[in-house]
Each structure stands twice: as structure tokens, then as C-alpha cells.
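Aim 2, interim progress. The first record below pairs a target sequence with its C-alpha cells.
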Amino acid sequence: MHKDRLYHRYQELRQYVGWSDDDTGRLKSLRPVLEPHFRAVIDDFYAEIERHANTQRVITGGEEQIERLKGTLRGWLEDLLTGSHDAEFVGRRYQVGRRHVEIGLEQVYTNVALSRIRSGLIRVLVDYWEDEPILLGGAIETLNKLLDLDLAIIEDAYQAVNAERQQQSERLATIGQVAGGIAHELRNPLNVMKTSVYYLRHARNPSAAKTAEHLERIERQARRADGVITALTDFSRLPLPTLRPVPLAQCVNAVLEATELPANIEVVVDCPDDLPTALADATQLQIVIGNLVRNARDAMPEGGRLSITGSEIDHQVVLSVADTGVGIPADQVARIMEPLYSTKSRGIGLGLAISRAIVEKHNGGLSVSSDPGRGTKFTLRLDKAAQ
């Protein structure tokens, strides 16, 4: 997290716990009481660590490392009680949390470790408080607020690192998924080309027609492989949309005019004249609608009905594209919009992935529902353009 954002967050947390000028004033009275007893609190803390395998396992350097860590903990306590809680201070506390993640200490042990330190410091205050007894309660309250704030920043660091690791894991999983899809889509045409090359190299006196047939196969499969690479390149370079008011009916008509639909498919379009315009990029929106229409067509090889309906729901412009085709198996619906995932025997499975990516860049949504054997409906939701 950026240092300025982190400090702003810390300031918000201070307000949340009710940190006041009284706490700032009381903080000055804490250090003289606590500092002479830091060593006892620290020794108790590490003695407890040695009694637990899950915390002891992060200490790999023996007594020498423990002594270094005790010095670090003392510095942490001194830093805590200086009263100079500026952006640099907050940044240092944040790094403590990140360091705990790096050494493999589970967050739960960080929480209980701070609880152990808290108990030790409060015990020192109770045993050695020399000011008015009535002020002790306020001093303990200030100490608790201070430690709670520290724990919140450390937990923030844990969550940030865990989120980074999750994102990295998801990126690696996506890379693996994409790599597997590319391998599958390119291996098929390559195998066909290898078979034809083998024939042309080893056939005895092949006829001109046979030679031409295999050369045509090689050229056709080369075009198919090039199409895979082109589709992937287009997907990765998808530009940001230029958002303007767009009539959905206009986009639907343009797509239907450009798409070949067999005579055995009945097309029903219901986009009311008073339907609000959508805030969209007309070119990219036609790509989405085109993909949905072609998918519906391909799902009805024996014919059926293609229904395209526009409506306004919850201040959004909604377009549904439904077919009466074969449907999508329940175990595949959740994956249907993943890159390189396809239920078709041909095609590389990027149409719906591109459509979802376009819709997300429009701050909209694309969902699917399907009833195997009865049909599928895709629902596109977009923001309304300002009237």
C-alpha cells in the first residue's frame, strides 16, 4: 500500500478507536514507567515462543537470532511509545506485518503474540504506576488503543500480501489455462500438417491431385493456426471503449444484417422505441451482440427461435439473447466465458471471453442461464446514458 494512503488509513483508524488529545498527553507518561521493564516483557515473550512449535519453527538461527530479535522487539516498543506517529512510523509498522508473512508466521500467532505483549505491559503499569491511581485506567486505555492500532496495521499488511499472492496464483493459473488451450488449438493443425508432410515425403509417385490435396490441407491448417494467434493477439490488445449514447436496437439490427442465419431459425426482436440509450462503444457492443447471436445460431443446428429483447431494469439497459437450442450442461455453465474454453468441436473459445472483457470495461455485466435440451439465455446489462 502506498505510504500516503497507509497514513491516511491510520488516521481514520485513530478516529475510529477514539484517539484524543488526552491519549496523546497520557502517552508521554507511559514510556518512563514501561521502558525500565522492557527486558522482562521481551524475555517472557520469547520464553513463551519456545514452548510452541508453530512459532518456534520460524526461528532458525538459534540463540544468536533470538538475541537479535529481542533487540528488534525492544526497538519496536520504543518506537511505539515515542508519540511521533507520522507516516514514516506507520510505514515501519506496516513492514513489520509484511516481514511476518515472509518468514511464514501465521496471522493468528501475530495476534496472540501482541496479546502476550499487551498483558506484560499492562502488568508493568499496574505494578509500577506511581501517579494518581485514578489515572491508571486512562493510561491502560491509551495503551490498548495504541496496540489495537498497531495490530490493525499489521493485519492490513497480512491481507495485502495474501491478496498479492492470490492474484499471482490466479495469474499463474490463467497462464496455465491459456497455455493449455493454445497447445490444444495449435497441436491439432500441426498434427494434420505433419501427416501431410509425411505423405508428400514418402509417397511413391503420388498423383498431382493427391499432392494438391495435401498441399491444400497444409495451407488450410496453417491458416487455422494463424487464426488462433490472431484471435489471441486481438484479445490481449482489446482497447478501452469510447462511451457514447447508443441505441441498442440499432446495434442489434446492424448485427443481424451482417450475420448469416439459416431459414429454419425464427428471429424475434423486441426492443421498444422508448428504450433508453446505453452508455457504450457501438463498435465493441456489436462485437458482443454478434458473438451472442452466432452462439445462439450454432446452438440450434436443427433450427429454432432466436429471441432478442431489450428492457430497462434497475436503472440499467438490459439486452437478452435467448435461443431454443441444445443448451449448456450444468457443469460447464460456470466456465463458458473462460478464455479458450469452448463446448464446440471447432473454435478456440475466445468469443464469450472477449465479450465479457468488453462488457466489464463498460462497467456492465454479462450473465448466462441455460436449460440443457431447451435453450440458453445470455443477459447483457449496461449503464443508461444521461438523458
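The second target in this work package is listed in the same format:
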Amino acid sequence: MVSIMKISIIVPVYNVEKYIRQCVESVLEQTYQNFELILVDDGSPDNCGKICDTYAKGDSRIKVIHKENGGLSDARNVGVANATGEYILFLDGDDYWLEPCFLENLSLRIEKNHADVLCFNFQKVWDDRSAAPYFSVPDLDSAGGFDAVSHTLWTACAWNKAIRRTLFLENDLHFVEGITSEDIDWCVRLALAAKTFDYINYCAVAYRQREGSISKAMTGQKVQCLHNNIVYSLKLTGGAEKKRLLQPFLAYQVGTLLYAIAMLDDQQIRQDMTEKVKPMLPLLAESDDKKVKLLHYAIRFAGIQGCIALLRLRNRLG
């Protein structure tokens, strides 16, 4: 049976003139046709707005929203408010989908299992090379009920998930504006709101790695924001039925926080953040991720200061 389900794809667009065409083309070349592509021009200072308008003139499925710059979270929220599909997908303006049959495979899986959230695989790409797919787990059949948050499949990103749109309408699933690491608490709230999960072992997204992107430059403010998001996420799971299942996810975020602290050049800020992370360290034991386990053992044998020193050394050596 051919699916007639409508899918909304939301793309925040800001200062990605070099990449936005590849992003949009990867959506337009999909074999599955029943979608709307919402391009949210977040006050981009380059020619992105004009490029988006040109695409919209040639395809009625494309909707362009021009707005003042408000950041990634605000752009996503505006996109969600204008979406009409049964499921919502996010795609960053500098990323792209790898194969034309992605949406078709996605829709067939949704029609089969009807999960609230369907996760899929991705890979990091650079200008000169690509990494292996991020996940190395087999395809999983959720017909009997699969809880993705109990696996490492639940990552702090919005763009490797297809989400039933009614979850946004019935739950507080807006992206918090004016912060970085905004996907962490959002993923926790999504996990608590959804009842059913699924995963398809399909490498769909090319996650572009480029200098100057939000995730590359580390500052004391961003590290503090990351810390605050983890603290808030821990409060969200307090007493929740899924608290135990979400512990591996939160443990990974604590590991990310340790790496971020080690990247700080300011010694005083680094010391202050090291003290703040100490109450979270027991969470590291809850993860099966190899990197997180390595951090856990490093702290046991070298202490938190020794672990941070080792991470700084690793960063300098590349």
C-alpha cells in the first residue's frame, strides 16, 4: 500500500549560502512526494533568503518564512507553528539527506509501526571525507514496543527523529530560545511525552562538520549553558517512570560537559566548572558508551582534575 501521509520538513536557514542548495535539493529529489518543506529564513545576512524564494517559486510544496534573527530555537518553533504534516522532521541548513529514497523508507516504517518517534542513523561529513554511520546497532522491530531511550540511539539532536506532530500540540515541546545545547532538555521532554519509539538502521543525514559552526567554538558561557541544561533535564526526570531509561542519555551529556570544560582556556572558569560538575559524576557509571566509560575509569584512577588534564592533552595533540 502506498502511504499518503504528509510529512513536514523544517529547515532553519542562517548564513549557509554555500550549503543551502545542497540541503534543499536533497529534499526535492526524494522519491516520496507528499511533503511540505518549510524554510525559515532567520534574518540571514547573506543571499539565503533570495535562494529560498527562488526555490519556492518553482515548487508549491515549499513555504518560505522570513523573520528577524532569533536563533536556531526560535526558527524551529516558527517552523513547527506553521507545519501541517502528520510527522515533523528537522534538517539544518548546512546538512543534507544522503539518499533519494529516505522519506519513502521512513514513511513505510511509520505506516508499519505507527511510533510516536522514529529515530534514524546519520554520519559526520567533512569537505574531504566522511565518517562511518554514527550508530552500529542492527535494525530493530518495534512491533512489540521498542523504547529507544534505553539505548544509545537517543541522541541530543532534533534532526535524526521523525516526530508525530500532535506531540508538539499536546505537550510543551517548544525549543528554549536564547540558549545553546537546546536539544538536550528538548530530547528529554520529547522522551517523556512520547509513548512509542522506533529506530530504523538507515543512514539518512549528512551531518556537516565545519569551522565556525555553533558546536565548534567553546566559551565559558556555552559550558555554563550546557551545565544548566543538564541540571534542568535531571529535574525533569525526577520521579518520572523513564528516569532510569534516560540515565544513559544524561550520562553522555555529562561526558560531553567534561570534554567542553577541558576545552576552556580560562583556568579559573575551568576550575569553577569542574567543581560544578562533581555532583553529576556518579551518572557516568550508568552509560555503556565506550567514551563515557573511559571517562568514568579515568576519574576513578586519576581524579577529576587528572581527567580534565588528560582531556586537555588529548585536545592539544589532536
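The longest strand covers residues 197-208. This observation will shape the mutagenesis plan for the next reporting period.
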